Amino acid sequence: MKKLWSLSTTEHGGDKESIMRRGNVYQVANGYMGYRGTLDEFGPDEAVGITLAGVFDRVGDAWREPVNAPNGGFTRVALDGVELSALGDDVVRHRQTLHFADARFERTTVFRRGGKTLTLTSSRFLSAVTPNLGVIAVSVTCDQPGEIAIRTGIDGNIWDLNGPHLPELAHTREGDVLLTAGRTHESGKHVVVAELSSAEWAGGQAADSADNRNLRVLTVRAEAGQTYRFFKYFAVFTDNDRVDGALGEAAISAVRTAHALGYDECLAQHAAEWRRKWERCDVLIEGDDEAQHALRYSVLQLLMVAPVAGSANSIPARALSGQVYKGAIFWDTEMFMFPFFLHAYPEKAVELLRYRIRTLDGARRKAKTEGAGYRGAFYAWESQDTGDDACSYFNVGDPFTGRELRTHFRDKQVHISGDVAIAMWEYFKLTGDDSLLLEGGAEVILECARFYHSYLYYKKDKDRYEVLDVIGPDEYHERVNNNAFTNMVARETFLIAQAAVAHLRKKHPAALSALVKKLRLARELPAFAEAARKLYVPKPARKTGLIEQFDGYFALKDVPVAEVKAKMVHPHEYLGAGQGLAVPTQVIKQADVVMMLNLFKSRFSADIKRANWEYYEPRTEHGSSLSACAYALVATEFGNLDFAYKYFLKTAKIDLEAKYKVYAGTVFMGGSHPAANGGAWMTAIFGFAGVQADARRLAINPRLYRTWRRLQFRLSYRGDWFRVELTPDRANVVAEKTNRRARSPHRRPAQKSRAR
Amino acid sequence: MKKLWSLSTTEHGGDKESIMRRGNVYQVANGYMGYRGTLDEFGPDEAVGITLAGVFDRVGDAWREPVNAPNGGFTRVALDGVELSALGDDVVRHRQTLHFADARFERTTVFRRGGKTLTLTSSRFLSAVTPNLGVIAVSVTCDQPGEIAIRTGIDGNIWDLNGPHLPELAHTREGDVLLTAGRTHESGKHVVVAELSSAEWAGGQAADSADNRNLRVLTVRAEAGQTYRFFKYFAVFTDNDRVDGALGEAAISAVRTAHALGYDECLAQHAAEWRRKWERCDVLIEGDDEAQHALRYSVLQLLMVAPVAGSANSIPARALSGQVYKGAIFWDTEMFMFPFFLHAYPEKAVELLRYRIRTLDGARRKAKTEGAGYRGAFYAWESQDTGDDACSYFNVGDPFTGRELRTHFRDKQVHISGDVAIAMWEYFKLTGDDSLLLEGGAEVILECARFYHSYLYYKKDKDRYEVLDVIGPDEYHERVNNNAFTNMVARETFLIAQAAVAHLRKKHPAALSALVKKLRLARELPAFAEAARKLYVPKPARKTGLIEQFDGYFALKDVPVAEVKAKMVHPHEYLGAGQGLAVPTQVIKQADVVMMLNLFKSRFSADIKRANWEYYEPRTEHGSSLSACAYALVATEFGNLDFAYKYFLKTAKIDLEAKYKVYAGTVFMGGSHPAANGGAWMTAIFGFAGVQADARRLAINPRLYRTWRRLQFRLSYRGDWFRVELTPDRANVVAEKTNRRARSPHRRPAQKSRAR
After folding, report:
1. Other residues' Cβ atoms within 10 Å of the Cβ of residue A105
2. CATH for the B2-280 domain, from 2.70.98.40, 3.40.640.10, 3.40.1550.10, 3.20.20.140
3. Chain A, 457-476: which have a CB under 8 Å from a chain B CB?
4. A408 closest CA partner among B479, B662, B207, B643
5. Which of A402, A452, A455, B534 shows its CA 20 to 30 Å from the CA of A49?
6. How many CB atoms lie within 10 A of CB A469?
7. How far apart are CA B392 and CA B535, in angstroms?
8. What is the Cα–Cα distance from A420 to A426, expressed in whole angstroms?
9. Residue by residue, what is the 3-state secondary structure of A466-487?
10. Least confident residue range of A540-549, B704-713, B731-740
């Protein structure tokens, strides 16, 4: 049982890439920050990172990326004057464990040096109740008497991809608290870290601030077999924290408060909060330990990186595992992570949507300045704190010339705005809560519709609107016309805009007229209906049922994926970007038409799903971590459960196995995969459990994988919670408790489907 | 004086590229075929080519290209049993000359071998009166007695870029005539060559058909100082020749007829025809021998490659100098060569236009099959015999990967159809002759307009039509929107279509209704007016006068041409094709906005011309031979005559100096430059002489270059001929004779402009 609630390894050294990958897999996070799964004694060379959510910085022309804080978790232990490290030759045994139950990282390393055996243990968590706080317990035991010196405190040597972001750190000390403060390079935002260490033994203590570190040295003349334990509390504060008074004082106060509570109490509060999280969000799979473990790991990841309440932050594509992908928020969040939160943790779904409301002005700026200049909101393809686009026009390196390749992710992947609008509307549909619409959600929806309205072209002889010159989810084919996914999303946005207006007109007429006036939308609004009606969306062909991914796709060269890959002459060469090997072929990067069939699953028959799935799947490289789960989800819709299961596992284990691509062209892109974590959850719940919800009902049409004896989980639907329990011959849905936050009166009981 | 009517060199050997370049520069042609400027004894290794106009073939997946005929001009001379060659070590002296007056190639080579000096002379022309015929006189003189053996006849070893096109040649003999016949690989088209050699001396004659050659051996026991002369007549016939009976018989008959006439008479007729050509077309420049010579060479080239009467052939981008660029006809013809013929040789202009009428169905096929499928006529970017597009979707090689790069020349360079329509209408405007319109020209125009009508998109909020996703003349920037040149050309096409309809309605109403019925155009026709009215054409900015080359051009990186070129790491790397170094910058390949200002010169003020010229010229790489003359022409419009002169000379001397680029990416593109020849003529006549004609008048606004004492030429205008004589202080225009071919009654006298 316990092995299903943890992940362990005995590996510790190895090459840089192994250390990097373990850093991703063993990270802990609390939404405010992520602490990579590195060891206490590690530094920048081992990719230690305490990545802050929502704090960004740019140095020169390099990519803007999230800021890593000085490492308040730093500790190095020396025995008889010699420092010990898991990377050294003295290691007898090592084991590190990520505990799912309380999102806690633990390591035990046994060193042997000069005939003495020293055991170092630490336990680390980022508090789930106090977002700024990290807590670590460290203990040292030597089998023989020895001089132990512990250098612990704050390491100002920060690992950055494109730093340094905090170029001049000030290391000070306030009584028993170490304080390291810096300002970001670009906007001078303050970042401070306070640290307080308290040893259980009375021993010497000295300051050490060499090498850009702010440390204390705890010494102990150790007795044989005696365990020496100390506790570290560190707190990170930035100008993003709404704090009265100085940040430094807030940080000092935070670590003193934690110290006053003590390690055990801090952990107890933290663990209790995690129990609540798991009570809601755990998915039980009986009969398949591999799936159980991988899915639980996926849910753990999502829960750890979910934004802090009130932050209006979102979740970057590599979450808080580092600075990869610029710490940016992509469509991944709305399309692959949001559904988990919407069904299992609606308060976090709210934060994700508030992030889009908060960054609406950035989306407006982007619309104005891209291409010919558009109206409304064109959300950033890579969104950071302001909503301006962090995506470069040259986003992939060319290994042949060392140059950067022009890609159109930023300027042509227009489906992003519709993805946001759809998520916004889903929240309202499934919770009945229209408060977010009033808070800015309706404005987001209307501005997204307006963007598409200004983007459309009318083709007179065909009497239809077309969406020209876009990139769909399959990024290998850039600048295509009438991408089925994009056109469908654009049309949906118009329909949602109309529905939102209808709802407001009925329930909040004053808010509606204020909004329409603010947006000067009165004249344009009626045109949305015409746009929705006349917007061309590629339809299934009568005979084959096939939907063409974009105009001309079927005329491309039809060659196997393997043939395209066999032509590669450089392992990192990118297959798209206009001249890549996949461009003239039907080989696609990831689910595109099939993603559309998944997103709009209620509009297409099983036959259409099967036909398109069978056509597109063999032509898909699955070069994105977003691809497998889309195919798995649609496979459950027409009964290919073996495939669905295979791709479900692939998705759920992506970070555990860490076999994903870490380079796109010359760009490093390693890190965690929260979208795949969300995809795994969706495949379990929407796929195998067959959950399908809309504003009218929550339907369950289970199709358990053959080895699964029980699938059990909780769902939130329109303010109520339901426990769903599925076995091969029974489906049981039980209403549990009422969520008092839901404000909508339109609650209906969930509809129990027949069991198969 | 004589040096202004010929071109000579004493170079003969050298590397392959030098021999290749001389082959281009010294070619002769007569519209039916071109004979590269190689020596009698040369073979395929020296790029001998008798390139046939309008005969194409394709082998396998290689490029389709014009067919080279077996070489009926082959002769090798041996002295005392040893063959002599200009490439060997026996050469004492060599001189070869291209005579402009009669388009004749002459060579004299003095060999010294075994103490004896042998002088070999030959004189070669392709008959201007009998298109199938080539005539060569060869003479040999030895200063001492010796055994001379002359192997002469037909060499079946053909130089091909992508051959062999005549894989199995049959060598036969009909009495005194050698006959070599083959069939093309792709369509089995017959190509036959007959040759008859007649020696002035009585000597031995034996057959020799080894090594794929069909030869006779003429032997002579030479006396010291005695000149031995013989004459070669060869004739090429193909299935394109409308011949009664067998092609072989026609060829045999042709050489026998020529032989009966004799060399002197053949030459006399040929020279007389050339006198008539020069009488019409020579441009006299007094005071500047360099310009005189280069321009005369340019006019010679145009006259030599002009299509045979009745052939409905056009002039390929590399004319008849070989198979480069697939022997294809580009926009070069209509935009850069056609004006010369229209003003100086209207009968040839007719052939060029008939070619587009003849290939209209190919343009219709292309429209149907490109992109989303269009209506009307989308002319081939690279047009061969059927009008189907020979341009590949992958038209440039990538030196880094050895792969072919996707280019959009074929599918997006939509201005080609308008270029054709404009030329068609210009002919009618300037000749008053509407017979071509009735022959199919009006159909061409209407189908081109229809193509644009089906290509346009309507932008509702701007109430305008746009031309999206095109390439303008600047091919470095692909897939741009609203290219000023293209939009202007498209609008012009609609206007021309309306004007053509109006003309037909008035003069040939029955023909109009038959045409409208045939094209089923009744309903669509009225829409052309709306399209013309609402078609967006980028306008000069109010303050700067600048016209943006396409949407977003001014937002591109503004870097000097040299900076872009300095980044090149491979000498053949292509700067465009989506990822090339010029793509993200404002660096352009060739005149684009400035080309538009040239094509529509009457619509823009001198200030606008100057402003745009000054902006775009420094940003132009002039990576195309079409660029310099466009800038030179516009420079004359606002008075930058020094620049105009410099670029005029550059254009006129392009083949003489042979310094042009011979590689685009990895593709070889050496050969002659008839478009530059036409551009040189235009710069002299439209630029420095300031000739500007429309349907209402012929205006002359001279601005002679400062060293020019006299500029004199003839022009045809609405059926009349005028002699124009310009000196620094006088402009004299004299009506000369009436061209009886002109059918239009709308003749007006030319308007004499004031002299400056």
Report:
1. 24
2. 2.70.98.40
3. 457-461, 466, 468-469
4. B479
5. A402
6. 21
7. 30
8. 10
9. ECCCECCCCCCCCCECCCHHHH
10. B731-740
Rounded to the nearest 10°, the torsion over CA B540, B545, B546, B550 is: 0
Pairing of strands A227-238, A133-142: antiparallel
Of A369, A453, A456, A457, which to mutate for an interface test with B (greatest number of B Cβ within 10 Å)?
A457
CB atoms within 10 A of CB A107: 21
Contact indicator for B512, B504 with CB cutoff of 8 Å: yes
Look-up of token digits 């329109």: A718
Q: Where are the domains of chain A?
A: 2-280, 282-460+480-534+656-700
Contact status of B116 with chain A (Cβ, < 8 Å): no
As a whole number, mean pLDDT of residues B685-704 equals 95
Chain B residue numbers touching A578 (CB-CB < 8 A)? 406, 578-579
pLDDT digits (tens, 9 = 90+) for B456-510: 999 999 999 999 999 999 999 999 999 999 999 999 999 999 999 999 999 999 9
Q: Which residues of B touch A371 (CB under 8 A)?
A: 551-552
* Rounded CA separation A592/A482 (Å): 12
**Are residues A622 and A565 in contact, defined by beta-carbon separation less than 8 angstroms?**
no
Hey, do A2-280 and A282-460+480-534+656-700 end up sharing a CATH topology, with the first three levels equal? no
Amino acid letter, B14: G
Q: What is the mean pLDDT of chain B?
A: 94
Query: Which residue numbers of B are catalytic?
Result: 475
CA distance B233 to B155: 14
Assigned token pair, A445: 């929806």
Q: What CATH architecture is B282-460+480-534+656-700?
A: Alpha/alpha barrel (1.50)
H helices within B380-441, ranges in order?
409-412, 415-431, 435-436
Confidence at residue B38, expressed as pLDDT on a 0 to 100 scale = 97
Q: What is the pLDDT of residues B603-659, one digit of tens each?
A: 999 999 999 999 999 999 987 778 899 999 999 999 999 999 999 999 999 998 876
Angle between helices B442-455 and B525-534 (to 10 degrees): 60
Structure confidence by residue, pLDDT tens digits, A490-542: 999 999 999 999 999 999 999 999 999 999 999 999 999 999 999 999 999 99
| DSSP-H helix ranges across B432-586 | 435-436, 442-455, 484-507, 509-519, 525-534, 561-566
Name the DSSP class of A602.
G
Is B551 touching A (CB cutoff 8 A)? yes
Q: Check CB contact under 8 Å for B552 and A371.
A: yes
Q: What is the pLDDT of residues A286-331, one digit of tens each?
A: 999 999 999 999 999 999 999 999 999 999 999 999 999 999 999 9
Write out chain B residues lying below 8 Å of A466, CB-based. Answer: 457
Instruction: Tell me how far apart the alpha carbons of residues B443 and B446 are, in angstroms, rounded to a whole number.
Output: 5
Answer yes or no: is pLDDT of B528 > 60: yes
Nearest CA in chain A to B573: A401
Quote the CA–CA distance of B94 and B85 in Å, as a whole number. Answer: 11
Task: Give the full edge-to-edge strand order of the sheet including A116-126.
Answer: A6-9, A91-99, A104-113, A116-126, A133-142, A227-238, A190-199, A177-183, A170-174
**A467-470 LR contacts (CB < 8 Å, sep 24+):** A467/A414, A467/A535, A467/A536, A468/B457, A468/B468, A468/B469, A469/A412, A469/B468, A469/B469, A470/A412, A470/A413, A470/A414, A470/A415
Say if residue A15's pLDDT is above 90: no
A41, A351, A475, A637: which one is catalytic? A475
Instruction: Give the closest of A401, A481, A551 to B400, CB-based.
Output: A401
Contact A500, A570 (CB under 8 A): no
Count of CB atoms situated within 10 Å of the CB of B571 = 8
Question: Do the Cβ atoms of A651 and A629 come closer than 8 Å?
Answer: yes
